[in-house]
Amino acid sequence: MGFQWLKGQQWATMVTSFAIGGVLLGAMTGCVTTTSGLYYWGEYENVLHTQLTKPDKMTARRQVEILERDITKATQLGQKVAPGVYAQLGLALAELGQRDGAKAAFDREIILYPESAILLKGMMQRGDEAMKLQGVRQ
Questions:
Q1: CB of 105 closer than 8 Å to CB of 87
Q2: pLDDT at 81 over 50
Q3: What's the first-to-final CA gap in the chain, in angstroms?
Q4: Apex CA 136: angle with CA 131 and CA 138, to 5°?
Q5: How far apart are CA 31 and CA 47, in angstroms?
């Protein structure tokens, strides 16, 4: 029984139609979830991609501008800042020599996403140790 009533061409057409429908439904669902997801991602993914592929076009200063704008926008929209945004902001601020700002950004990431604590606290500790060594050498 089942689909025996479908003959060769009809079967292929039906399977193709279901496949295309599934892909379209998946694409539409994907669009909906990314625009109204749990977090506000803003330009974070583009910042990371550009920083890795064209570092000369994504300076630390430019990262700070974009990420701070995204954080403000998330707040205005009443959405949560995506995981990693404050950590990336902290790295950019550290690169600019803004140690206090970097620590504040790392601390904010840890508050929002406690699972990041081990990584970020380790990074801060290694940064402090590196600064001490540089101070000794200078």
A1: yes
A2: yes
A3: 85
A4: 90
A5: 21
Contact between 97 and 134 under an 8 Å Cβ cutoff? The reply is no
Average pLDDT over residues 75-94: 96
Q: Are the C-beta atoms of residues 50 and 57 closer than 8 Å to each other?
A: yes
Alpha helices in the chain (DSSP H): 8-35, 44-53, 60-77, 85-95, 99-112, 117-137
Task: Answer whether residue 73 shows pLDDT above 80.
Answer: yes
Q: Cα(118)–Cα(96) distance, rounded to whole angstroms?
A: 23
CA-atom Rg of the chain in angstroms: 23
- 10-50 pLDDT, tens digit each: 444 443 344 444 444 444 444 443 455 899 999 999 999 99
User: What gap in Å lies between CA 14 and CA 4, rounded to an integer?
Assistant: 13
Question: What is the dihedral angle through the alpha carbons of 68, 74, 80, 86, rounded to the nearest 10 degrees?
Answer: -10
Phi, psi dihedrals of residue 80, rounded to the nearest 5°: -80, 140
The one-letter amino acid code at 125 reads Q
